[in-house]
Structure formats: structure tokens, C-alpha cells
């Protein structure tokens, strides 16, 4: 081969090498795309982990296990519950976010997650940007209860007494910064009346104080107060939602009784780490819609004092954002210090 031909051949080789170098990433992506699509179509091909920011035995844990069992049967894979309580949900969130965003690790977020954003100084995650919503699981209202046979038979009785004696009524909730405690703070501002909010460690302590006339009213979940209401120890005078609870249809809402702007409904929902393929989110949502519409699931949730309710991803995502804004304002107005 003469020099001219060899030179041309060498130049062609170098040009071809450059072209291949440029095309290599695109070729790799093109080859990987069918494999990724196939993996998403086959989802789930192994068990799924659902991380909870609550300990075992609570209402969120119990309802999550009910859903996990039914969802696992629907998808043909086991849904493993991983309890990671504490630190404003940070421990659970980090456990989910440290995993691959492939739909095999999911997280339970809640109304408490929305509260954690303004309540904690150093929350190490942003639930709005670090997660993508899948579907809501459950909603539940809070209930205002008074001592059965006591002097307060209706919410009007409570409001009238509070107006007649500003700061004189004692309203009990669990811990400062809890959904129940912030519901009391919101009720104070929307009703325009003054009363003393007294926090206790747990619901049994609240009931002892109510029955001992240390508290005039307590605000807690339907689930927590179900036994006291059923056994006739307490009387429900109002519910906290925008409309009457299907579980307590005879109890009027606070709004019905003149407290405009008061609306508190707690919730929990399944989210996935940001970057989870949309096809996986869509498949999970469709499965949850079917599971939560099952009359057996609806009945079991009602027995526990909560309403089973699915949602579109966008709906529960907006609820999370709206609740962060809502509770930020309540916390700031109440002067609750950041933790």
C-alpha cells in the first residue's frame, strides 16, 4: 500500500472512531431503553417495601398492613412493612430515599409529614420535591367530645361558656405540634374565642382528665375516642371535617355550628422516591384504587374509625402542599417554637 492510500485509510479510521465515540452514549441508551421498558412492564418482579414513620400497633400501622396484604395479592408480590418511627418522619423518609427509585421501596407520608416541614428546624428532606405521590389510603376527622352527662351537651354550649369566661375553659389534646394540638389552635383562631389548650402525652390521660372534670373538652381522632363514645363515657359534640363523617353521621361539623373556616381532616398516603418511573406509579395507583374500593377493606377501615379512600396522584400531592402552607400559618400564629 502506498503512503497516500495508507494516510487516507488512517484518516478514515480516526474519523470513524470519533463518530463511534459520539454515538456510543446514544447507542447505549437505545439498547438500554427496551430493557428498562421491559422491567417496568414486568413490575413488580420482586417484593416491595413500604416504610412507615410510625411504630407497630398504631392505626397507621394497622391500616397499612391491611392494604399491604390486599395490594400484595393484587400485584402477586409481598408488600413488606418496615417501621421506622421518630425524628419527625426523617428516619422513615431517609430509609425510602436511600433506596433505588424503582418502585420497590415506597413511603407512607401523612398529615404529620406536612406539619413536620414548618415544625422542625433541620428536616433533612423535602416531601414535595423528594417524593412523587401515588395515592391516598385513608382519611379521618377529629372529634370534639365532652363528658357524658356533663354541662356541655353541644358545641354551642362550649362556645357560649368560652365567650362568657375568656381563657377559662380547658381543651385537651395530645402533644404540642400534633395534628390534634394544631387543630385546637386553628379552632381558637377561626372561632374567635379564647380558651386554654392543655397538652397530654396520650389519649388515656386525656380521658381520665375529662372524666375527672380537669378538662372541659378534648379533641382527638375518632379511632382513639371510639371506645369512650361507644361505652357512653363521652359525648361527641362536633367533628372537624368540611362535611359530616360517614362514621359519625349524626354528629354535626364545627362549620355547621357556626365556626366558619375550620376544616381539619387527617390523612395518610403512599409516595415513592422522586425519579420512580411514571409507568410504575400508574400501575401502583390503579392497583390501590381497586384495593381501597373493596367493600371488605372499606368495612375493616370503618371498624378502625377511618375512611378508606384512594386518589389520583395529583390530588394527594396537592393536599400535601396545601397542608404544608396551612399548618405553617397555624404554627407561626400560635408561636409554637421549632423543634
Describe the protein in words.
The chain is an alpha/beta fold. It has helices spanning 3-41, 59-75, 90-97, 111-119, 127-130, 155-164, 179-191, 203-211, 222-230, 278-293, 295-304, 313-334; strands at residues 48-52, 79-83, 105-110, 131-147, 170-174, 196-200, 217-221, 234-239, 265-273, 307-308. Strands 1, 2, 3, 4, 5, 6, 7, 8, 9 and 10 form a ten-stranded mixed β-sheet that branches. Helix 2 links the parallel strand 1 and strand 2. Helix 2 (59-75) crosses helix 10 (278-293), helix 2 (59-75) packs antiparallel against helix 11 and helix 4 crosses helix 12. The termini are far apart.
Set down the secondary structure blueprint.
Elements: H1 3-41, E1 48-52, H2 59-75, E2 79-83, H3 90-97, E3 105-110, H4 111-119, H5 127-130, E4 131-147, H6 155-164, E5 170-174, H7 179-191, E6 196-200, H8 203-211, E7 217-221, H9 222-230, E8 234-239, E9 265-273, H10 278-293, H11 295-304, E10 307-308, H12 313-334
Helix pairs in contact: 2-10, 2-11, 4-12
Amino acid at each position: 500500500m502506498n503512503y497516500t492510500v495508507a494516510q487516507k485509510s488512517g484518516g478514515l479510521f480516526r474519523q470513524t472512531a470519533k463518530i463511534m465515540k459520539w454515538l456510543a452514549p446514544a447507542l447505549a441508551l437505545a439498547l438500554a431503553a427496551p430493557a428498562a421498558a421491559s422491567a417496568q412492564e414486568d413490575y413488580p418482579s420482586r417484593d416491595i417495601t413500604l416504610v412507615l414513620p410510625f411504630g407497630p400497633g398504631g392505626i397507621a400501622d394497622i391500616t397499612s398492613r391491611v392494604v399491604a396484604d390486599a395490594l400484595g395479592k393484587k400485584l402477586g408480590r409481598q408488600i413488606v412493612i418496615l417501621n421506622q418511627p421518630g425524628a419527625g418522619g426523617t428516619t422513615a423518609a431517609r430509609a425510602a430515599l436511600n433506596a433505588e427509585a424503582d418502585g420497590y421501596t415506597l413511603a407512607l407520608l401523612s398529615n404529620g409529614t406536612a406539619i413536620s416541614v414548618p415544625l422542625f428546624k433541620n428536616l433533612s428532606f423535602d416531601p414535595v420535591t423528594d417524593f412523587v405521590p401515588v395515592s391516598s389510603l385513608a382519611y379521618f376527622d377529629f372529634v370534639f367530645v365532652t363528658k357524658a352527662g356533663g354541662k356541655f351537651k353541644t358545641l354551642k354550649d362550649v362556645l357560649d361558656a368560652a365567650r362568657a369566661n375568656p381563657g377559662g375553659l380547658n381543651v385537651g389534646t395530645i402533644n404540642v405540634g400534633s395534628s390534634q394540638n394544631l387543630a385546637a389552635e386553628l379552632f381558637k383562631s377561626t372561632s374567635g374565642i379564647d380558651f386554654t389548650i392543655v397538652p397530654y402525652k396520650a389519649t388515656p390521660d386525656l380521658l381520665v382528665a375529662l372524666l375527672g372534670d380537669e378538662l372541659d373538652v378534648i379533641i382527638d381522632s375518632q379511632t382513639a375516642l371510639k371506645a369512650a363514645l361507644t361505652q357512653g363515657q363521652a359525648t361527641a359534640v362536633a367533628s372537624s371535617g368540611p362535611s359530616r363523617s360517614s362514621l359519625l353521621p349524626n354528629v354535626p361539623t364545627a362549620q355547621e355550628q357556626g365556626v366558619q373556616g375550620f376544616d381539619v381532616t387527617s390523612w395518610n398516603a403512599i409516595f415513592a422516591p422522586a425519579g420512580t418511573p411514571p409507568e410504575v406509579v400508574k400501575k401502583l395507583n390503579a392497583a390501590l384504587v381497586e384495593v381501597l374500593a373493596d367493600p371488605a377493606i372499606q368495612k375493616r377501615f370503618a371498624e378502625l374509625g377511618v375512611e378508606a379512600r384512594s386518589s389520583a396522584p395529583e390530588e394527594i400531592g396537592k393536599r400535601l402542599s396545601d397542608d404544608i402552607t396551612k399548618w405553617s400559618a397555624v404554627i407561626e400564629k400560635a408561636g409554637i417554637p421549632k423543634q
